[in-house]
Write the structure tokens for this entry.
Amino acid sequence: MIFAAILAGGSGSRMGNIEKPKQFLTLGSKPILIHTIEKFSIVNSFEKIIVLTPKNFLSHTKDLIKKYIEDSDNIVVIEGGNLRNDTIMNAIDYINDNFQIDDDSIIVSHDSVRPFVTYRIIEENIEFCKEYGACDTVIPATDTIVESNKDNKISAIPLRDNLYQGQTPQTFKINKLAKLYKNINDDDKNKLTDACKIFVLNNEDVYLVNGDVTNIKITYPYDLKVADAILKDQV
Amino acid sequence: MIFAAILAGGSGSRMGNIEKPKQFLTLGSKPILIHTIEKFSIVNSFEKIIVLTPKNFLSHTKDLIKKYIEDSDNIVVIEGGNLRNDTIMNAIDYINDNFQIDDDSIIVSHDSVRPFVTYRIIEENIEFCKEYGACDTVIPATDTIVESNKDNKISAIPLRDNLYQGQTPQTFKINKLAKLYKNINDDDKNKLTDACKIFVLNNEDVYLVNGDVTNIKITYPYDLKVADAILKDQV
């Protein structure tokens, strides 16, 4: 069984003083979140597409899905957690409560604010995860990456050839992810901004799937302008 | 004395099958390179703005500057090198051949394909370099950065809080840069994709200047669409 988890838990503090979290902002003719859900809707593999939002946006999200998505039978909206990994664990709890999964069952987790994910990327995530147990979507780093630990000075410039910019989806065998997450202490849990790091900290392999430069994350107001340009180019 | 080096040496192989290097592509009403030169032209500090291009584009570049830049007396076009640092060293050779510099003389090096650099960023580069000897323009990394050494697997996910995406300008005391570059063996020289790394490899401090998300590098066709969106937003 394969599940999708659309992570729409963020409150969008980096977007400046706006009323709505960024996943609910309009891009073209509909909310960003709807664009994202649509990309998963056209993939037939999913037992359930689980959308995770802040508590006070649950009914709004359900209304939007009813309004924009024609066939929404396999979509469910539940509450997300405070941190990214809490949100993923909420999805896993929901799956365990409602389905009989086994060790080959897979969760494809994806940022709700990456509306330009492609069918090819989602399919490759599923394939790679089936084969390897975990995978991450990345593109080669185009910028030089600079490390600075303190004092506003450069401490290192790692070799760019080995560096990638992480995107999503990030895809995992569900039971393995849940088991590895339990191995991590609370301190480390709070520092985890990334689900793949659960595997890396446990010395487990995570394979790389080729993402796409257009698979951007809409974080800042500037990104919304870029997103509009990408959208116009696709229509 | 303060000099600018606009690095237009690249042949733009990542842009796909196009006739012209990317710095000569049109953005809005004029070539990208001209936008970039204009940003430096309005800063009064420069003794000379040195534009470095491939040999076969020298006269074309001179023609463009004549056509688009009203007051071009302090602009000179010379040949760049094969690698980024060769190009910077060509600029330094030119400076030494034509000016009497001292240990406080500064070179502000900048990618010709970053046309949205701001007056504020250039001024802060000059200030920080005067104070510290070298500085680099960066923004906090927004994407998770993933390291992979082999086998298409993740080898590490460094803590994002310490990571920055490098932009340009990169600004240096000229004599110090030239001296440190001589300390590096040829093997390491060929691996240097970044001028700041000359300082880092010599355990010399490089200070960070805040860049801007719009200070993008136009590398891929996709970036040109983003650039158009930024330009429209600024007009």
About this structure: The mean pLDDT of chain B is 92.
